[in-house]
Design a protein that fits this description.
- The complex is a heterodimer of chains A (about 190) and B (about 400).
- Chain A has 7 helices and 5 strands, in the order βαβαβαβαβααα.
- The mean pLDDT of chain A is about 85.
- Helices cover about 60% and strands about 10% of the residues of chain A.
- Chain A is α/β, with parallel strands linked by helices and about 190 residues long.
- The radius of gyration of chain A is 26 Å and the shape is elongated.
- The relative contact order of chain A is 0.10.
- Chain A has helices at about 10-20, 35-45, 60-65, 85-95, 105-155, 155-170, 175-190, and strands at about 1-5, 25-30, 50, 75-80, 95-100.
- With about 400 residues, chain B is of the alpha/beta class.
- Helices cover about 40% and strands about 15% of the residues of chain B.
- The model of chain B has no long low-confidence stretch (mean pLDDT about 95).
- The chains are: A alpha/beta (about 190), B alpha/beta (about 400).
- The interface of A and B includes residues 35, 60, 87, 91 and 96 of A.
Chain lengths: ~190, ~400
């Protein structure tokens, strides 16, 4: 069974592709939705097309399914139309599926289940990555504030951190916000930012 | 507060929905509005059909096509309110504009001559122009087909129509993937400002009061939530009136400019709002009255005759088989009855009828109204054809196709 993944985020497509391969599908192609991508898909004659729901190129693909000669009499099916819960899950996960002509829905369901799980996993990964990035940036800010306290008030590192922490608690703020305020104030007073 | 989610596409004519949210009109009527921005009509349609949102900013022909089962999952949709009239344009790149009248203003003012010149250009180059359209079931595509066919061009044989989302049109034109496109604002102005093409036709000069976007809901949801629907329509009617007021133009453009709304410069967005359109990069803007209407002349009223005009075009282009059942279903998508129920008590001028002969008015005409004074603006088609909803067959017979 030939599966085409239309996606311009290389990472998401590979997360999906890997999962499909693990599940035993091996005829998988990733096509970025640019330029004449529709003609390319037409030549590949896939059984199933998977696409990110947020992609602006969905209209283009649907139009192809409506007029394509190569995919004779194509049925563009948005998931299994009788299963509203599945469709809801697919929409929530951001995956949209097109089944090209006559493929039995029993064979499509496992692909879709997997795609939904993978899309969700990707979303989680993205969130964790963002979190990690923020945490790193926060730590740098806090380190800078600690250095300022150590230099200007002659504190040892644990004491500088404790001071930041108690100030944050007293003001009901996050440590990083207090640190940022301190860095701003310090630079306003002529110190190195 | 009733929570309610509306999906929209980044276009200038999403203004009434954005204003209903941002200026507190929805809140005033007890609706806690969530806006869901999408980039393709297919996604917007699916979100509505599968109940992820309760309402959507939708192409009027798409709402009818979904109801008739022409577009993916068949679902009965209802359009109790029109969000705007007109607002589209046709942009072509230099190869095809070179064969037209050298004066860009003249081209736009005389769509009959421009259509003939365009037909000649196709013959001259012996090449099918590739024209981007935003959706097979869009008002832009129907008006483009109408205009091309006037000059004897068969839109299914003599040109290639390629579906692309509005936000990718300018880039496709730059890369030479298309020769031109028709889309809603601000995307035409974006392409002109980047010097990629020129506006050679504007929707308002093809059909002076062309139907554009509607507020669409699922028909079963509309029936099950009459009270919420009424409050939503009140909020939208007030928002539309606010959008039409020139005093609010600057604030509206600034609101639409924000990245979570349209995300293009306020200057480009203002073109459509003010009806001052730059046709060719570097030229002064040209006054284009009524380029886009939100509220005046009861613009929001969903005339059933307008739904039937769309149906007539779907039949004309072989997208749907003519039948009494299809005709009735198409007309019933436009819920003028719900509009009356929701806005009847709000002092809005209310047309006395729900059908009219489209394209018959050459000058403003005061019409029978249940309350308030209602004057309808000229609504002619550029070729002078008149659409009588009682005789669709007769209407279609006058066109070769």
């Amino acid at each position: 069974m030939r599966i085409v993944i239309v996606d311009d985020s290389g990472l998401r497509a590979s997360v999906l592709e890997e999962g499909l391969r693990d599940a035993g599908y091996d005829d998988i192609h990733v096509v970025p939705p640019q330029g004449a991508f529709v003609a390319k898909i037409e030549r590949m004659a896939p059984d199933v097309v998977l696409m990110d729901l947020g992609s602006p190129s969905r209209d283009t693909l649907e139009e192809m399914l409506a007029v394509s000669r190569a995919l004779a009499r194509p049925i563009a099916m948005f998931v299994d139309q009788s299963d509203d819960a599945m469709i809801g899950a697919a929409i929530d996960a951001g995956v949209s599926a097109y089944v090209v002509d006559g493929l039995r829905k029993e064979r499509v369901k496992p692909i879709l289940d997997l795609a939904i799980r993978r899309f969700n996993a990707f979303a989680r990964m993205q969130a964790e990555l963002d979190e990690a990035r923020t945490a790193l940036a926060d730590r740098k800010t806090i380190d800078r504030a600690k250095t300022i306290l150590m230099e200007t008030r002659g504190l040892a590192e644990p004491d500088a951190y404790a001071l930041l922490r108690t100030t944050a608690m007293n003001q009901n703020k996050r440590i990083v916000d207090v640190a940022e305020a301190l860095i701003t104030a310090h630079s306003l007073l002529g110190g190195q930012p | 507060m009733t929570p309610l989610a509306i999906a929209f596409l980044p276009l200038t004519d999403s203004a009434p929905i954005i204003v209903a949210h941002a200026k507190g009109f929805a809140e005033k009527h007890g609706i806690d509005l969530t806006l869901t921005r999408t980039t393709s009509w297919a996604t917007l349609r699916d979100r509505l059909v599968y109940g992820q949102v309760q309402a959507a900013h939708m192409l009027a022909p798409l709402a009818i096509a979904v109801t008739l089962g022409l577009s993916q999952h068949r679902a009965a949709l209802a359009a109790p309110f029109k969000l705007n009239l007109n607002g589209n344009a046709l942009v072509m790149g230099s190869e095809f504009t070179a064969a037209l009248d050298p004066d860009p203003v003249q081209r736009v003012r005389d769509p009959e001559a421009t259509a003939h010149d365009f037909a000649n250009a196709i013959g001259l180059y012996r090449r099918k122009p590739v024209i981007g359209i935003v959706h097979r079931f869009s008002s832009h595509a129907l008006m483009l087909r109408y205009w091309l066919a006037y000059a004897g061009i068969d839109p299914d044989r003599d040109v290639s129509l390629r579906v692309l989302p509005p936000s990718l049109m300018a880039e496709a034109l730059r890369l030479g993937e298309i020769d031109g496109f028709t889309a809603g604002e601000p995307w035409n102005s974006v392409a002109v400002a980047e010097g990629l093409g020129e506006i050679i036709a504007v929707g308002v000069n093809i059909w002076r009061r062309g139907v554009e976007k509607v507020l669409a809901t699922r028909a079963d949801w509309l029936e099950a939530n009459p009270e919420t629907v009424d409050r939503l329509l009140l909020a939208l009617a007030e928002a539309a009136a606010w959008c039409d007021d020139p005093a609010n133009r600057e604030e509206l453009a600034a609101l639409l400019e924000r990245p979570e709304h349209v995300g293009q410069s306020a200057e480009l967005i203002t073109a459509a709002l003010a009806g001052r359109i730059v046709l060719h990069c570097g030229d002064a803007p040209v006054d284009t009255p009524d380029f886009m209407l939100f509220h005046r002349e009861a613009a929001g009223f969903p005339w059933r005759s307008q739904a039937l005009w769309i149906y007539s075009q779907l039949v004309r282009w072989g997208m749907v088989k003519p039948s009494a059942a299809n005709e009735r279903q198409a007309a019933e998508v436009f819920r003028s009855d719900i509009y009356r129920r929701a806005l009847g008590g709000a002092g809005q001028p209310m047309p006395g009828a729900s059908m009219k002969v489209e394209g018959a008015l050459a000058a403003p005409l005061p019409v029978g109204a249940h309350q308030g004074a209602l004057t309808l603006g000229p609504d002619r088609f550029f070729d002078g054809a008149v659409f009588d909803p009682a005789d669709i067959e007769g209407y279609l017979a006058r066109f070769r196709r």
